[in-house]
Amino acid sequence: MLRRLLFIVPWFLFPASTGGRIRTLQILRGLKGGAFSVTLASPAPRDGARRFASELNSICDRFVSWPSKRAGVWRKWLRIVHLAGLLPMAVECDRSLKGARVVAQQIDAKPDLVVVDFPHTAVLLPPRLEVPSLIFTHNVESEIYRRQVAVAENPVLRSIWRDQTAKMERYERNTLTRFDKVVAVSDRDAKQFRERYGVKNVASIPTGVDLDYFSFHPPEPEPRVIFSGSMDWLPNADGIEWLLKDVWPSVTKKVPQASLTVIGRDPPPHLVRAAEGRSVRFTGFVDDIRPHIRGAAASVIPLRIGGGTRIKAYEAMAQGCPIVSTTIGMEGLPAEPGHHYLLADRPEEFADALVTLLAEPARGARMAADARNFVEASFSSARVAAEFERICLGLLDSPVSV
User: Fold this and answer.
1) Is the link from the previous residue into 256 a cis peptide, with omega within 30 of 0?
2) Distance (Å, rounded) from C-alpha 20 to C-alpha 266?
3) Helix (H, G, I), strand (E, B) or coil at 371
4) Calpha distance 127→123 (Å, rounded)
5) What are the backbone angles phi and psi of residue 154, rounded to the nearest 5°?
6) Which of 28, 109, 137, 189 shows the smallest number of beta carbons within 10 Å?
7) How far apart are alpha carbons 303 and 283 in whole angstroms?
8) How, if at all, do strands 133-136 and 113-117 pair?
9) Rounded Cα–Cα distance for residues 359 and 353 (Å)
10) The domains spanning 3-208+381-397 and 224-378 adopt the same CATH topology
11) pTM of the complete model
């Protein structure tokens, strides 16, 4: 008989417009049809379950939901109000009385295992969990905040981020230690949870990529550069702002025909304005990212803040697009700089690395082939999902299970 798994996520998973959604979908697709009967619980927009019925059927056996919070000006003001709360602003924003009621009802049905996706989702849980539980973390959340303090130039913003960092560290520690098992997305993150928070029962899974969906296509001679990522996520917006200001002028000075395409939803208006007349295009949300990546001479990951691991890196590698990245952009991924991608943290280094790929297509092609072989060897999404299922089963079969 199949065991019953309740999987709680903080947002509606479709369309899969963020790295977090993509990673969660990979896990759920791998779990479907395996050792568990999966109930997925999440917020959902009005008629979302109907519009995405076939997609939901591909990742779970049963779907329960509560209304998504609507975006708008009032939500921005609410976020400002939440700055004064005891919890981090991002956690306060995910509170939902309706969501908490739905989650409580599902937990009262005594599933064999509860999986919580992202620490802030735990704000929906009852005070005590009487069933085995696992939390799936995609980042060290407090690390993102600490890095924001380091790069903030405005003293007021720096003070706000410092306050939010302290709140997130406290919340993250208290949350992770509630669960029977913590699953991180890299050995590096798992080590931080052990050393910083004293979490003992922590495991890690690698980042995966759908190798069939992202088929290989070698880079083409046209000096076309791409970036992919949700532009309403602060680390992505910060990275592109840094790239446009400190890197791109040097690139176009040496390669005047170079172009940059930024692929991702909700680009900040000030960045769109800053890109005008500079061979830079923002696509906004796209249904399928593959045509934009295919054949590009380089993919950039210019992150200065952030956490976890970047799925966008493996997607580019799988499709044959050479990468230039900062250290943070490739953090937690076991790829080898100089072989699978080019590493550059200072603006002049980043520009030189990009120019190298644009001016030497043969080098980019060799790197692309090596990178594809690298992800094929160990990082398919199916293999990662199987490891996640193994961890879940191991928790239930452990003598320390509730």
Assistant:
1) no
2) 16
3) helix
4) 9
5) -80, 125
6) 109
7) 19
8) parallel
9) 10
10) yes
11) 0.88
Q: Please give the CATH superfamily to which domain 3-208+381-397 belongs.
A: Glycogen Phosphorylase B; (3.40.50.2000)
Residue 74 in this model has a pLDDT that exceeds 90: no
Place of tokens 């970036």: 227
Q: Which two tokens stand for residue 138?
A: 């995609």
CB-based burial, 54-93: b 16+ in 10 Å, e otherwise: eebeebbbebbbbebbeeeeeeeeeeeebeeeebbbbbbb
Q: Indicate the pLDDT class of residue 306, thresholds 50, 70 and 90.
A: confident
What gap in Å lies between CA 87 and CA 79, rounded to an integer? 12
Q: What whole-number percentage of the chain has pLDDT above 90?
A: 89
Domain over 224-378 is classified CATH 3.40.50.2000: yes
Domain range summary for the chain, segments of one domain joined by +: 3-208+381-397, 224-378
CA-to-CA distance for 42 and 102, rounded, in angstroms?
9
Of 377, 363, 229, which Cα lies nearest the Cα of 306?
229
How wide is the angle at C-alpha 227 spanned by C-alphas 55 and 16, nearest 5°?
Answer: 10
pLDDT of residue 76: 59
How many other CB atoms sit within 10 Å of the CB of residue 15?
13
Beta-carbon-side half-sphere exposure of residue 172 (alpha carbons within 13 Å): 27
Q: Is 213 helix (H, G, I), strand (E, B) or coil?
A: coil
- Give me the count of residues in the chain: 402
- Which amino acid is residue 132, in one-letter code? P
Beta strands in 101-201 (DSSP E): 113-117, 133-136, 181-184
Report whether pLDDT(257) > 70. Answer: yes
- pLDDT tens for residues 211-255? 999 999 999 999 999 999 999 999 999 999 999 999 999 999 999
